[in-house]
Specification:
It comes from Nicotiana tabacum (Common tobacco). By secondary structure, the protein is of the alpha/beta class. The protein is 27% helix and 20% strand. The strands form 8 sheets. Strands 6, 7, 13, 14, 15, 16, 19 and 20 form an 8-stranded mixed sheet that branches. An 8-stranded parallel beta barrel has the order 17-18-21-22-23-24-25-26. A 6-stranded antiparallel sheet has the order 27-28-29-34-31-32. A hairpin with a 4-residue loop joins strand 27 and strand 28.
């Protein structure tokens, strides 16, 4: 959607911008004409407004095209389709889904009354915030419906509250609460203002290419000689010449001047035929090459008849962009005459006068924010580096993999030094390590700007800004680009479930009112975390959040999002109620339907604009349909996180003796017991210990154990064995995605604890001890994790179908399952070892060990000899399968067998 004050050059109109022109017929019918289409888009059905042919006969049959996509009604969309799929017969929940689906359609209709399309709804960052305009100015647009006065204050105007402002009721403020401020560039002393030369950034090596030094007259003469047909240039100089000439031909030089003087006019076809008869003896070059046929019906579609030669000539005609670019001055020439109204690096805030008094805020759409000296107030920074300094992308997005092996990271703790690390530290240290470790994606937490470092980045203050603690926006672009160069996808953990409650740096009381972005009263405040809850039913809030998702993809080329803590937004009790799994809990009065509609819209928009984007849902309640299509009653996510797995492992390690572990409970928890198991993301442990204060698994299992005494050696072997087994079964038994937190792959022995008042702001636990990789123990654990990732890469474990779990024995504490040609066998018993344990298999043949947790190179005992590496099946039924293997199983060990040779029986 374009502002009326925007000036659009022809070059950007033809090259960069796509316009949707909508005309309304009645109250519901929309007609869309697309002039330029350069990106994927959310589109609506189109109506043809003309038919073209080269003769008066019916047009020849065209090349067969793919059928157009059917609308929802034509495809017969079933909003509760997944109920039948998963056997859910709960009537109240089915009715809730139907009502929700209707509400979604009504919401889309409401959106389209204010926006051209869902794409325009999710590209608010193109207008809001600070943007350079080609007409020697910077435009600022902000939404603050509760304010009475708005001004920009900063070091560029001496923090004046009156120099750059917009008042209520004057130009710059509309009825929806959007404030518009223009910052004019200043003409340097002794310089003449440009008439046709607008600033034009040419993002190429020779960025001043547009400044040729030619005069306007010389460029126009060159265009007339080389481009325009004889006589066409006259129409450029006088836009009314054609209209005046046609009027004179129709009515004569003394024609009617008013409607009263205008007599009854014949229809268009009669007038056209009479004109053609009058000029039938004129030279062919003077006659039009097209005929317009109108059958006289109201709202009829016109036929345009023309000769093929004219059509071809018209198609070959290219816009005179080259001549237009010659009238553009590059940045150097522009800076010679003008001083920027808002120079790059300027610090600023937005000033509001409200019914409760004046206040200053960081703009909601600011893209770079830094704290001031005392840390109580933040400042927005205008980030507009010159083209020669701006970051230029080098690598494309990696291909979307069939399975994910995610390396979760926090930039601030990636260094070994006790400090807040930077994007540059992360690029040099973590990216090569993640690639070497065998992961195919990284997931970043705490990247979006937040106030308090110890909150890990979850209390977001500025949703469009990269955290200045780690570097500049261009530094983050380089991180993403370097990751793509290594073949690593980049995911961002996004927090749209709540926001920081800080008034001076965040969105709370942004315009002086309590209901600008958030709900009022209890619903607007998280019961336990002290954060604010978004008002998802407000169109302007939806505009802000949907645009935010699209911003990170468009501006920083991220490949997907991990949606944090959905249960906080899906329920008015913020997910802190006891869940029994009854379907009533997913459709009762505590469910926030507006939040559900936002998540559905978010997935629809993201997947429509960026088909390869990946979305991951983190919901402790496992809301039904998280990963089902939105057209069938689902929320549309690609993966969901099984949060129970990590909690189960922690409870077993801290509270349950080894011999009391239940194999059935382990399997049922890891499999989720829910629908869409194939879309489940599993992890043994992630970054949660950083905010819960708990210990890491390595700290619990290994700690300060050593091999000096027999007792400590036994404790050490136990810890290392369980650490490897837990990670192996977690990464192979579930769906198509696995996650590991930075450092856990080599058994980082200490928990994560960010500097905060209760630890005297210590950085001792806010780092990663990479030097431990030189230690034998941690290097052995890393070797195992790396070989486990190689097993996933070469054996494509995660990308295969679900595991066939055919042996779960709580007495022997043995678990076995098949996944493709791979057989996984786990013996969790703390004491019992089995020389010839019977495990069923479906295929007869030879099975070879490809991974063994008990090998000495992984810190194990090496109890399985080379003569047991290859096992041959026995023709005896076991575990409901036709054949079996008799394999050796040392205590606390796991082996992976692969079918290497099939035998005919």
């Amino acid at each position: 959607m374009l502002s009326l004050t925007d000036s659009i050059p022809i070059s950007s109109h033809l090259n960069d911008t796509r316009f949707n022109f909508l005309s309304q017929s009645g109250s519901r019918n929309l007609r869309q004409v697309t002039l330029v289409c350069s990106r994927p888009r959310v589109s609506f059905p189109q109506r043809n407004i003309c038919r073209c042919s080269t003769t008066e006969q019916p047009p020849p049959q065209r090349r067969k095209q793919r059928p157009a996509k059917q609308s929802d009604e034509e495809k017969g969309i079933d909003p509760v389709g997944f109920l039948t799929k998963y056997g859910i017969t709960h009537k109240a929940f089915a009715q809730f889904l139907r009502e929700r689906y209707k509400s979604l359609k009504d919401l889309k209709d409401e959106i389209l009354t204010r926006h051209f399309s869902l794409k325009e709804m999710s590209t608010g960052y193109e207008l809001l915030g600070m943007h350079r305009n080609v007409q020697h100015r910077v435009d600022f647009l902000e939404w603050a419906p509760g304010a009475r006065y708005c001004a920009l204050v900063g070091d560029f105007n001496g923090w004046s509250t009156t120099d750059n402002c917009a008042r209520e009721g004057h130009f710059g403020h509309d009825d929806c609460g959007y404030w518009f401020i223009i910052l004019e560039d200043k003409l340097r002393q002794g310089e003449e203002p440009d008439k046709l030369y607008f600033q034009q950034y040419n993002y190429v090596d020779d960025y001043d290419k547009g400044d040729t030094g030619n005069t306007i007259e010389e460029i126009f003469k060159k265009a007339n000689d080389e481009y325009w047909e004889p006589g066409e240039d006259r129409f450029i100089k006088s836009r009314y010449e054609v209209a005046a000439k046609l009027y004179e031909e129709m009515f004569g030089p003394n024609g009617p001047q008013t409607e009263e003087e205008l007599e009854e006019m014949p229809d268009a076809v009669t007038r056209y035929k009479a004109w053609k008869e009058q000029h039938k003896n004129d030279p062919a070059s003077n006659l039009p090459s097209y005929d317009v046929i109108d059958n006289g019906k109201e709202y009829d579609i016109f036929n345009i008849i023309g000769d093929p030669e004219s059509f071809q000539k018209f198609r070959m005609k290219q816009p005179p962009i080259a001549y237009w670019l010659e009238t553009k001055k590059g940045r150097k020439a522009w800076l010679q005459k003008y001083m920027p109204g808002l120079p790059h690096g300027s610090k600023y805030r937005v000033y509001f006068n409200t019914p409760n008094g004046p206040l200053e805020r960081v703009p909601a759409w600011a893209t770079y924010v830094i704290p001031d000296a005392d840390g109580k107030q933040a400042l927005a920074v205008h980030w507009e580096p010159p083209p020669e300094s701006a970051y230029k992308w080098k690598h494309k997005h990696p291909l979307k993999p069939k399975s994910l092996r995610i390396y979760e990271c926090h930039v601030g703790i990636c260094s070994q030094e006790p400090k807040v690390s930077s994007f540059s530290d992360f690029i040099s240290k973590v990216l090569p390590h993640a690639k070497e470790a065998g992961y195919n994606a990284i997931q970043l937490i705490g990247v979006v700007e937040h106030k308090d470092y110890f909150t890990v980045g979850y209390r977001v203050t500025n949703f469009y800004a990269v955290s200045s603690r780690f570097g500049t926006p261009d530094d983050f672009k380089r991180l993403v680009d370097e990751a793509h160069g290594l073949g690593l996808l980049v995911f961002l953990e996004i927090v749209h479930s709540y926001a920081a409650a800080d008034e001076m740096v965040g969105l709370s009381l942004f315009d002086g009112t309590n209901d600008c972005y958030f709900h009022t009263g209890k619903r607007g405040n998280h019961k336990f975390w002290g954060t604010r809850m978004f008002k998802y039913g407000d169109l302007d809030v939806l505009h802000f959040l949907l645009s935010n998702l699209n911003w990170w993809v468009e501006e920083y080329h991220v490949d997907g999002f991990h949606f944090h803590s959905l249960s906080s937004m899906l329920y008015t009790h913020n997910g802190f109620a006891s869940f029994t799994g009854d379907m009533d809990e997913y459709c009762n009065q505590y469910v926030d339907k507006e939040a559900l509609l936002y998540l559905i819209l978010a997935n629809e928009v993201l997947h429509a604009l960026h088909p390869n984007v990946i979305t991951i849902a983190e919901d402790a309640t496992l809301y039904p349909g998280l990963c089902d299509p939105t057209s069938q009653g689902g929320l549309g996510f690609d993966y969901f996180v099984n949060l129970s797995a990590s909690e189960m492992w922690l409870a077993l390690l801290e509270n349950t003796p080894d011999h009391e572990w239940s194999m059935s409970k382990i399997v049922s928890t890891l499999m989720g017991g829910r629908q869409n198991v194939d879309k489940m993301l599993l992890y043994a442990e992630n970054h949660n210990q950083s905010i819960s204060g708990g210990r890491s698994f390595a700290e619990i299992l290994i700690g300060n154990s050593s091999r000096k005494s027999p007792a400590s050696q036994e404790s050490f072997l136990r810890g290392c064995s369980l650490y490897k087994m837990i990670r192996l079964i977690t990464s192979t038994i579930g769906g198509h995605a696995y996650l590991n937190f930075m450092g856990n792959e080599f058994g980082h022995p200490k928990r994560v604890e960010f500097p905060m008042p209760n630890n005297n702001f210590s950085f001792s636990l806010a780092n990663r001890q990479w030097d431990l990789l030189e230690n034998d123990v941690h290097n052995q654990l890393f070797s195992f994790d790396k070989d486990m990732m190689d097993l996933h890469e070469n054996g494509r474990i995660l990308s295969r179908g679900l595991a066939n779990i055919h042996h779960v024995n709580d007495t022997t504490m043995v678990i076995s399952y098949l996944r493709g040609p791979n057989l996984f066998v786990f013996n969790f018993h703390p004491v019992n070892a089995y020389e010839r344990y019977t495990i069923g298999v479906e295929e007869a043949g030879e099975y070879q060990v490809t991974l063994n947790t008990d090998e000495k190179k992984y810190g194990g005992r090496g109890l399985i000899g080379h003569d047991h590496i290859v096992q041959r099946t026995i023709s005896r039924r076991a575990d409901g399968m036709r054949f079996c293997l008799e394999v050796p199983l040392p205590s606390r060990s796991a082996q992976v067998y692969k079918l290497t040779r099939i035998l005919r029986v």
